Amino acid sequence: MMNREKGWGKLQYMGGLGYQDSVIVTMKGLELRLVKILTVFTSIDLSSNHFVEELPMDVGSLKSLKGLNFSHNNLTGYIPPSPGNLTDLEWLDLSSNKFTGRIPRELADLTSLAFLNLSENRLTGHIPRGPQFNTFKNDLFAENSGLCGFPLPKTCKNSSRETPPETILQENDTEHGGWFEWRTILMGYGCGTVAGISLGYIIIDSKKLERLARSFDRKGAKMRRKSRRNARRSYQR
């Protein structure tokens, strides 16, 4: 199952000429009986046992794995991101365990994943979005009181808690040019505003001075005309 070779040529089955192996497996939520087992059939079904502790990280090295079923056990801890390396994985069933923490974002990147069941655990946080995750029904995430987001009816109250701080910083730097660049723009805008207001006051004050000067000129002209009239009257007398 660690070998990615597809086994070209004629299909071969496990077992000898007089006897063929058979097995009952749960594939994509359906229990099936395979009367013959293809040698290229790579699936692990360890459901309904009493396994405890965490899911092994080594699962991520089984590159040819098509299906993985660990449902109905007593597995605890976080779901490791290593299953995200299984690019051929078509179904994954980890339901009815005691997994905690968030759903690994790596699982949402699996483009071959047609079936996923994470119900009846203790998972928390926002359900990641992805091409396959967007097609899953809400009952595949049910009985996880801490989960929120599509396809569940429960919305996440604080979206900032659902995105890692590093991602938020990267998005801000990418979309808005970074805090330093914005701070520079705001400083320039503030300085320009102050300069504009100051220039406006200068223009306003200069206009006031001009009007005041004109007023004095008019008053001075009136006084000069009045003094000339008085001088003429005195001369005539």
TrEMBL record:
Protein name (record): Receptor-like protein 9DC3
Topological type in the membrane: Single-pass type I membrane protein
A GO CC annotation given for this chain: plasma membrane
InterPro entries: Leu-rich_rpt, LRR_dom_sf
Transmembrane intervals: 186-204
Gene name of the record: LOC115732496
PANTHER family: OS01G0160600 PROTEIN, RECEPTOR-LIKE PROTEIN 12 ISOFORM X1
Name of a matching Pfam family: LRR_8
Keyword annotations from UniProtKB, A to Z: Cell membrane, Glycoprotein, Leucine-rich repeat, Membrane, Receptor, Repeat, Transmembrane, Transmembrane helix
Location in or out of the cell: Cell membrane
Family named by the database record: Belongs to the RLP family.
Broad class of where this protein is predominantly found: membrane
